């Protein structure tokens, strides 16, 4: 008798990752020997003060950058772009064509994805307007709704959504809560208020060094201590 089929585990792994930038004659270490395993369905908070390396971490996870030392491996884990991105679409194409193009790129059915984005963002006639003619906030909404519709296994989130559109914020937070039940959220943030609500585990990133904690509360306490000393420095 054949053994029952077990689907391969979904994992994103940082293995000894170091990233440095050369800026105005100085080498800046954005990430130093970072190792971390994100398992399918697990939601992770990366807490860090300003300049601690959060955005660099998120860009690596989203495959937008590669490390100079170490590697970021995705095993059966599809990863979205950072969800509040305001770039990545083509301003000279209509919203509809942008969504169609992106859906095709990821091998999904364009009509289904277009319908799902329109249900989320209610674009109406703007669906057939050139993206460049619409406010940049529309780009962020379309990028978010498209990412949700494409059903990735992992969603990198760089900071929390900043918008005056309270209705969109409410829907986006509900969508993230729903995603959390079937995908991994990786939230890099300097704000602690969403961490308990959206994450299972928390790490603190300080000067490029990532440290795990046994509990979210412990991570938050450590992060607050770093924040307080940064404020008094
Ligand atoms: N493209 C770049 N060129 C030069 N230096 C960079 C670049 N990206 C990041 N850095 C440097 O790497 C360090 C970490 O930056 P990063 O943006 O990852 O931190 P962050 O925690 O996201 O900061 P913030 O909270 O201010 O967004 C900083 O010292 C920053 O100046």
What does this structure look like?
The chain starts with 10 loop residues before the first strand and ends with a helix. It has helices at 54-61, 95-105, 110-121, 136-149, 166-180, 195-198, 216-232; strands at residues 11-23, 26-39, 44-48, 69-75, 154-158, 184-189, 201-206, 209-212. It has two domains: 1-80 and 153-233, Rossmann fold (3-Layer(aba) Sandwich); 83-151. A hairpin with a 2-residue loop joins strand 1 (11-23) and strand 2. It has 233 residues and is an alpha/beta fold. The longest helix has 17 residues, at 216-232. Strands 5-6-3-7-8 form a five-stranded mixed β-sheet, with helices on both faces. The chain has a three-stranded antiparallel β-sheet with strand order 2-1-4. The structure holds adenosine-5'-triphosphate.
CATH architecture of the largest domain: 3-Layer(aba) Sandwich
Count of discrete structural domains: 2
CATH superfamily of the largest domain: P-loop containing nucleotide triphosphate hydrolases
Output the strand order for the largest sheet.
5-6-3-7-8
**In CATH terms, what is the fold-level topology of the largest domain?**
Rossmann fold
Low-confidence segments, given as residue ranges, are none
Helix content: 25-40%
Ligand inventory reads: adenosine-5'-triphosphate
Structural class: alpha/beta
Average pLDDT for all residues? 93
Main β sheet profile: 5 strands, mixed
- The CATH class assignment of the largest domain is Alpha Beta
What would you report as the Rg, rounded to the nearest angstrom? 19 Å
Counting DSSP E segments of at least 2 residues, the number of strands comes to: 8
Distance between the termini: 67 Å
Report the total helices. 7
Strand content: 25-35%
Helix and strand sequence: EEEHEHHHEHEHEEH
Give the overall silhouette.
globular
Assembly state: single chain
